[in-house]
Amino acid sequence: MASDLETKAKEAFIDDHFELALDLYSQAIQLNPKNAELYADRAQANIKLNNLTEAVADANKAIELDPSMSKAYLRKATACMKLEEYQTAKAALETGATLAPGELRFSKLIKECEERIAEETDELPKQMLKEVTTNSVPAKEVEPVKDAPVPMAVVAPPKPIYRHEFYQKPGEVVVTVFAKGIPRECVKVDYGEQILSLSIEAPGKDAYHFQLRLFRKIIPEKCRYDVLSTKIEIRLAKAEPIHWASLEFSREVVVPQRVNVSSVSANQRPVYPSSKPKRVDWDKIEAQVKEEKDEKLDGDAALNKFFRDIYQDADEDTRRAMQKSFVESNGTVLSTNWKEVGAKKVEGSPPDGMEVKKWEY
């Protein structure tokens, strides 16, 4: 039965009936889920329909089932190049080239990836400057994208969906999938330059697949995940310190906001979305209390504080003048003029109605 469906799917693909081919391949995969060829061929149908993230997922599954299948790496690279994930595409092509040394398409596409990577590296600073300094284009002026992905009809039966949410820091995005009691060996996470793929296949439970194209690019080798008792926590390392407006990629015009990490000081901690009660900034409260306490000073206390502030911010000559005048005048004179004080001894200057008296020992 699966072979008949596969034959019909190939015929539909040759006749450019890609949606029918996709449906037939999906039915064949349900009957024979361990057939790597079916996943590789369905990946090609998804590429034709511009279902690029689905194509990458199918190619990854084919590679998992048969790591020696060179065309699975070719399918993955083709989809990644359309997604502008040239580093991931190049890595897949290099592996595929070792499996099929005589296939010229691999070397040709590797060269194209290298050219694209060089262009991307050179253009990125200019692009970021333009995005930050240019106002957003009104929605009515944005031309529709001709090659927008066509939504894929869900063929398989409905799967249980685990709730997920995310929050971000300047350098990473943390995705939380609330899946309870899942063994770590049943969880598989794949990262692309701009793709996140999660698979959960636990005994006694329906398989769950979660995949999306991310808002911006990440650094796959720096990403990691933890499987906890109540959730799966995935940490994505941002390729750029830019605020993500959403977790998933959108073709809408968005001006990214670059996060200046160096400007975040201890007293200006970044605030992230959270469902927890609002935290109290005790440092701020302490500073306010100290400021109010200082404002209530009066009389001698206020005067002493005034002179302490002057001494703390003064240069070396001013400090020497203050020390010399205060000591030599028995605390009755405080001068900040070193040129005047340094040339002579400072005589005492008692308040009106009082006189300076020398103590005899």
TrEMBL record:
Residues 271-361 form the SGS domain. Keywords: Coiled coil, Repeat, TPR repeat. GO terms for molecular function: protein-folding chaperone binding. This is Protein SGT1 homolog. SUPFAM superfamilies: HSP20-like chaperones, TPR-like. Residues 159-248 form the CS domain. Belongs to the SGT1 family.
